[in-house]
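User: I'll paste a sequence; please echo it back and then give the predicted structure.

Assistant: Echoing your sequence first, then the prediction.
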Amino acid sequence: MKHLTNAEIMLMRSAAINAGSEEFWDLAQDVCDFFGVKVSDLKALTRGRDVVCAARALVCRIASDRGYSISQIARFLHRDRSSVLHAIETTVTNDAPVMFKSVRGAV
């Protein structure tokens, strides 16, 4: 059995992380266009209310429609898993589903 070098392991991890990233960022661009924010704002350390709404809509759409895992979404957005779960839970339990339906139909 061949043992992988550290460089090979890192390359495989990088490929796994980037798998599907083009689709993810295409969807992110659509959602950001709808909300009038920049995609780069989604990865920023501090975010305003409009960016938070866009991020929540994106997280819910990616998780429900595309089947990305919570960990994958967290990696794309440079957040931890608990932040992604909180976004999903908050969007589902608050009045945000009304907003989310309009985004889903528009994007």
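The CA atoms of residues 2 and 54 lie 45 Å apart. Helices lie at 6-18, 21-35, 39-42, 49-66, 70-77, 81-93, 96-106.
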